[in-house]
Amino acid sequence: MDFQSKRQFVSVAADFPGPAARKLLEARRQYVPQGLSNTTPIFVQQAQGALVTEVDGNVFLDFAGAIGSLNVGHCPPEVVEALQRQAEQYIHSCFHVAMYEPYVKLAEKLASITPGTFAKKTILLNSGAEAVENAVKIARKYTGKPGIVSFSRGFHGRTLLGMSLTSKVKPYKFQMGPYAPATYKAMYPYPLYRPEGMTEEAYANFCVDQFEQFLLTEAAPEELAAVIMEPVQGEGGFIIPPISYVQGIFEICQKKGILFISDEIQTGFGRTGTMFASTQFGIEPDLITMSKSLAAGVPISAVTGRAEIMDAPSIGEIGGTYGGSPLGCVAALATIELIERDRLCERSVQIGEQIRSFFGALQQQFPIIAEVRGLGAMCALEFADPATGKPLKEFVAKLVKACCESGVIVLSAGIYSNVLRFLTPLVITDEQLQEGLQIIRDAIASTAGTGSY
Description:
It is a single chain. The chain has two domains: 3-68 and 343-448, Aspartate Aminotransferase, domain 1 (Alpha-Beta Complex); 77-341, Type I PLP-dependent aspartate aminotransferase-like (Major domain) (Aspartate Aminotransferase, domain 2, 3-Layer(aba) Sandwich). It has 13 helices and 15 strands. It has helices spanning 19-31, 65-68, 77-89, 101-113, 128-143, 160-165, 200-217, 243-256, 307-310, 326-341, 344-360, 393-406, 430-448; strands spanning 44-48, 51-54, 59-62, 120-125, 147-151, 183-186, 224-229, 259-263, 287-290, 301-306, 369-375, 378-383, 408-409, 411-413, 419-422. The strands form three sheets. The protein has a seven-stranded mixed beta sheet, with helices on both faces. Helix 3 runs antiparallel to helix 10 (326-341).
């Protein structure tokens, strides 16, 4: 049966992108720098839940969620109403000049929901990169040490320090240096490629031993302020490390006086099946960076950490004019309430199970799917040539395009850009999810063609 005839949600015309989108694309090319990448030629007109309608009336299922910013979906009514109420009261007063209650209420809420029973404090900012920058500043101030360790394939932003901590050279770092000093990169596990015959436990121990060697050969603990780690790597390809590895690195940091910063910008707020992924790895980070789905797409970020660490900077040493804007704060409070009320962490687990089950059943039919992996709804497919193991970057690029033309917005990831990642809103219905998965399956089949990739 032709699946096209069964579609309930997706509707894409044969001439996509249509005339309105083509006109806007021309203006975009004329007035916006080429350096801003665009995964799709879509210009959004309106969006609700997991559905996006563009300017020519085409309707798409959103499996990208603004790179993981929309765990509660597009335009949740509760968040829209909170924004409207706040905008009628006051839009901005700058917390440094005239304080406001939503900032304090959000800080209090984040102290209660982040891992750890110790006293915590929070600074609010604008973006994920700003959260990373400030977490590093605070760690350096508290420890009096300069060094920061990140990990291979990690991504921490496009600012100078964010790029310095990020691993992928192209497109993020090429010809953008020199980079910030006193930053180091340690190896991060890649379970799919662990040595043949080595158990997961042995592999985790091997990787922890590598980190111990790193502290002897590359960076002395006495000079390290912090380690920053994504509990599940996002841009790096949705790589899930062994639990014992993360715990091992955390324990080394505790023993050697190195702070542990958990970068939960993409993994936070239910994406992995718990409010924060750190919980599933059994650790209580000293500092946590957050953004993306914190406020349903409204720009805001946060650093929450142990109170004594957060209090290390003196008055005026951290902050910013727009940091923790009233609009962002009320949006975040409404978003967190929605996640808790509608049990979206549990829903994340259900979504992830459906995605992994669906594609796991297709691996024999499509041997180019090297692995189906995920934690909660943070799922991915890695594509490689089954004969050579070569990462299929060009194939995934074509697949992303084919999915879009068929009505599903998806993103690639990974150091080789050969990973298809799923960041569906957690409010997506089972019917919408299954329709999207079927479309992606058909796109894989059509893109794979005769097996020449």
